[in-house]
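Retro notes - structure team

What went well: the batch runner handled both jobs without manual restarts.
What didn't: labels got mixed up in the shared folder, which is why I'm recording both outputs here explicitly, each with its sequence directly above its tokens.

Job 1
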Amino acid sequence: MKVNIHNQTEKAKKLLSDECYTCAFLKDEKQFFSKERGVKPLLQIIDEKKDFSDFFVADKVVGKAAALLYVTIKIKEIFAFVISEPAIEILQKNGISVFYENLVPRIENRQKDGFCPMEESVLNCNSPKEAYFLIKEKLKSLLK
């Protein structure tokens, strides 16, 4: 396992702090940034069939749902300011290097009175493919 964070991941992390992005993807000269919250930017990448395999990523918050989507995207390494224990397990099982600032049992919802609905939607799921559909369904139900 890598001991040091890759310089591309470090640059992505700095962009989150300096530019108020929620996630940043870097690989050589290629870059992608988003200010969207939650899993929206990850779903956008998957839905638009963009190739972000082997990218170095920094993200504000990574729960199990986001981790399963990152596996689908096939990133190489990630730094998270906040990450859940199930997310680390998923990422590491899939060969993705993980660095973080704060480790939590689960990601809370925005009201801080329960778990994140995305995290709950994949609670019993370990399949990235299945998770994608569960997350999309949960988002649909939240928009009703």
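Job 2
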Amino acid sequence: MFRIGHRIARSIHRKFADEGSVDVSESDGVRYLHLGNDTIQSAMRLSDPTSLELRYTRGVMMFLLFAPKAATMLGVGLGGASVARFMHYHLPHIHQRVVEINPQVIRIARSHFALPDDDEHLQVIEGDGAEYIRNHPETTDVLFLDAYSSDGLPDELSTQMFFDSCVQALTDEGILIANLWGSDKRFDLYLSRIEQSFDGRVLVLATGRPGNILVFGFKCEPDDLRWSSLRERAKALEAEHQIEFLDFVESLRDRNPCSNHRLFLGVNERETI
């Protein structure tokens, strides 16, 4: 029995039996996904399934602030399909591909988390995310990594070579979004590798304490990082999507170099401020 509620489903695939089960629980009108333990991997409010229940998933939408013309997104790690479901309903102009290695996660997402069927807006692919990225260079505007398992971030999705391949997978103005866990003892290592791959063009957004931390890597620097411009764009996005974009903009001050007038990108700017 999970501490947050009662279990309603369990699935185990022979190939992934050593990594634990895929479990579903419910409490107070919210359905949760767990991978091998009681840590919440994904959540869906049953009365509003196309909304984003967890704060970190809402933080992912900050890519809209920096890449308003994005037309494609590649996701690695499906989970409970929160981001895929939200975007399919609210941002159908962005074509999504989501790669998930565990077929039971895909099955549970379809049976218990309202994952839409594949169509012209969404394609769910069973496969190895690292291999898929290597084989599809310069094909996506946004690359979203959300592939924590019960044992943490898989080795094959956290090497320097892997993050280098993420840069290659992006279009000229593409953005990487990596969901990391703040209490992971290897967090600083992962962050330094992303910074190296993206030549320091990195922003860090904490979405909880210690909780999920989103790392944004930019293939090229956004045009306008003045606070006034960021707040103006965030205000418009907040009105459109009912997501706390303004709060997220202010949160960028906590972990990134900045002045009173603008935000700077990553370690290179930090050395000059």
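One thing worth noting from job 2: The chain has a mean pLDDT of 91.
We'll revisit the folder naming next retro.
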